[in-house]
Queue: 2 jobs
Job 1
Amino acid sequence: FTSLRISSLNRHVKIHSDEKPHVCHLCLKAFRTATLLRNHVNAHTGTRPYKCSDCDMAFVTSGELARHRRYKHTLEKPFKCSICKYSSVEASKLKRHIRSHTGERPYACYLCSYASKDTCKLKRHMITHSGEKPYECYVCQARFTQSGTMKIHILQKHGENVPKYQCPHCSTFIARKSDLGVHLRNLHSYMAVAVKCSYCEAAFHERYALTQHKKTHRNEKRFRCDQCSYACKQ
DNA sequence: AATCACTAGCGCCCCCTGCTGGC
DNA sequence: GCCAGCAGGGGGCGCTAGTGATT
């Protein structure tokens, strides 16, 4: 460490000792400086001296306020990705983002082969091993592994006037957007090899068209005796 | 020496999205 | 088709630690 001022050096030298003379009277945690202790005690008591001039939020430190203002008001994002257009308020967010380009997964699960790009995802993954279901539906007390899963449960099961998604090709209504995706893939995607109807010579490149076609055979007497002219529907 | 603003860095929790597989 | 499990990408805040500048 080097510094222009002797006072900065004197202060710096102290970080190499364990000396932390300022102790919180509420939790006994110790700090190197009075300012750190004051911020810590303010966090205990909910004292937030730094008020945002554009909304109701308030913070313990000026740094927290500055960050909040970037997120909510100035929208300034100083950390730019060199590969794509992404930018972020915080350096750590850019770091996390860049892993989506590099594929780097530094956080490995010690119970399986999974590895994550950030610590939170690993933490979320770990509950798949514990079997824990931390989220409870306030209406029916059903339990869930992720908050988002619970949220969609509450919407679908207990919500009113829940919108449904209509298939653009066949007028089927489906509750979940992702299930519409499954529907489109399974029934409306183009199949390179046409599938033949099991009752006639017709062939289709789309599974939905095939099932619709098969319905036209419903009232036919499809099952014929090969010894005589007998035929029946079933 | 005390105090301020500022940066850096860890963590926590949430959101939305979309796929999977059992029913 | 409905449903819960589960992973990817990302937003926003809580808090601590250290440094430069000023009082």
Note: Residues 7, 10-11, 33-35, 61-63, 66, 90-92, 119-120, 123, 147-148, 151, 177-178, 181-182 of chain A lie near DNA strand B (CB under 10 Å from a C1').
Job 2
Amino acid sequence: MALPELLSRLRLAPLRHHLGRSLSAVAPPPDEPPPPYPPAPPQPPSNPKLFVAGLSWSTDERSLMDAFSSFGTVTEVRIMYDKNSGRSRGFGFVQFSNDYEAKCAKDAMDGKVMLGRPLRISFALGKVRGGPVIVPRLPTLK
DNA sequence: GTTGAGCGTT
């Protein structure tokens, strides 16, 4: 009886020791950072300004603001008009005081029919006064 | 009197 116990102790002791070390050595990586393969969208494109297309020709900035003012503070509404004819080009921009209001208005109004026309809303891009417009600056000649 | 995807001026 004592012999098998002794044998098991003699053989298990190093084994348990080894296992304990190897486990503790292999244990740490439960934190495997899963590499997000679409590395692009950490944040959904969001800014206070919305690009609103699909506007009826008869939609003016006043009615457009009235349609969006219930989602937040509208800081700017602009509809692009044709230089010559003076009529609406069918799209414009609506800017809110913050990104949340803009996203809320977009989710609520995108696809909604206004004056018989389905609205196409997305976040504005490009020309933003004071925005991140990168202008390559050439060295000034002297 | 028209048209219908799109990203703009001061």
Note: The two ends of chain A are 100 Å apart (CA to CA).
